[in-house]
């Protein structure tokens, strides 16, 4: 019977803020070995698109935008996008509370400003550069942009929570009040990274006992809970480690490879 493993990207395969811009050679090796045995590997991320250094790994599928875009063997299974009016309303709310935002879908990324300092800092943390000028302004593409996810950044947590209160209660919103990057990731209701993982392994008729997931952040919690082997990275937050079925080593210390050796002798 085939097995399936889901992998968060940031903090699990790479660590951009600390200079680890691509997965280690050993991580790539064990993923390829696992796949060569007839199993499936899937990247599962809050990112709207997959960075090139991850695309170099032969993943069978991608779960992006915290579950709102799912593809497997180049077939789109889920593509949950904001309407034009929902985007316009959010832009007004974020501007009212001194915020700015980055918007994305699998086929493109946009920003609401090229100069906002907090948006530039957010982009530098996850893309390695603060230059936003290569990204089109959403105001010029609202009618055509397919947006699955919005990252709204703010100068203070009070502005963040004031803006959050004006959004629909049933939307999937992850809040990050880290002073380095005060933001919320905003998605429509109906999906999460965890439910997308469950949808995919059920869609493929894979027994839950043969499901694995690796993660480190708050948005990985449900993913780790909805598989049998939910493995937290050593650098994961304490409450993620508490709900995980096991804890491996840090991302920079071959945590994924060590877990594969432990469970599958790969």
Topology:
Blueprint: E1 4-7, H1 25-36, E2 40-44, H2 52-55, E3 61-64, E4 69-72, E5 75-79, H3 84-96, E6 100-105, E7 108-111, H4 117-127, E8 149-153, H5 157-164, E9 172-176, E10 183-187, H6 193-203, E11 211-215, H7 221-225, E12 229-232, H8 238-243, E13 246-247, H9 255-264
Parallel strand pairs: 1-2, 1-11, 2-3, 11-12, 12-13
Antiparallel strand pairs: 3-4, 4-5, 6-7, 6-8, 8-10, 9-10
Helix pairs in contact: 1-9
Q: Main traits of this protein?
A:
266 residues, alpha/beta, Rossmann fold, Hypothetical Protein, Haloacid Dehalogenase-like Hydrolase, Chain: A, domain 2, 8-stranded mixed β-sheet, 5-stranded antiparallel β-sheet, 9 helices, 30% helix, globular
Q: What is CATH's topology name of the largest domain?
A: Rossmann fold
CATH class of the largest domain: Alpha Beta
Cα radius of gyration in angstroms: 18 Å
Give the class from helix and strand content and strand pairing.
Answer: alpha/beta
- Tell me the name of the CATH homologous superfamily of the largest domain: HAD superfamily/HAD-like
The CATH level-2 architecture of the largest domain is identified as 3-Layer(aba) Sandwich
From the structure provided, what is the oligomeric state, counting identical versus distinct chains?
A: single chain
Contiguous uncertain segments of 5+ residues: none
Largest sheet, order of strands side by side?
5-4-3-2-1-11-12-13
Q: Structurally, how many domains make up the residues?
A: 2
Overall pLDDT confidence: 94
Helix residue percentage? 25-40%
